[in-house]
Amino acid sequence: xxxxxxxxxxxxxxxxxxxxxxxxxxxxxxxxxxxxxxxxxxxxxxxxxxxxxxxxxxxxxxxxxxxxxxxxxxxxxxxxxxxxxxxxxxxxxxxxxxxxxxxxxxxxxxxxxxxxxxxxxxxxxxxxxxxxxxxxxxxxxxxxxxxxxxxxxxxxxxxxxxxxxxxxxxx
Length: 171
Prior knowledge:
By secondary structure, the protein is mostly helical. Helices cover 81% and strands 0% of the residues. It contains eight helices and no strands. Helix 2 runs antiparallel to helix 3 and helix 7 (134-147) packs antiparallel against helix 8. The mean pLDDT is 94.
């Protein structure tokens, strides 16, 4: 696929197919336990789709593809315990889906994507609690709660972080 896409770099359909192929290869590598290869493939796919999205920022499908790729990168980084980098990737995805969701409030896919991204930030917050990176945990969980105050499970992460910070009364 890469040779085909590179043979005609102006062909957006082939470039997007290359990004999708990289993501599929990344998922396969992850399933085989090869996180470094998965991360490499997800980042390759992200680079391809980001370049397309920059050419046509109005293409909501490509914007969503960028967000999906950021989430895939973040997932691998989270498993590697690279919490700051994972959170940065999740936040990049969130920024994109917030824009998509705001542009079409009745689009169920965009709203679902928004809740998914908020959830990923919440999971990163919990991982930070487990790693005793409490400032990061508080920052991430407070962001997630601000965006999804109805998600009660986020409050448990916040309470755990507060208790570990010795702020039991606030927990």
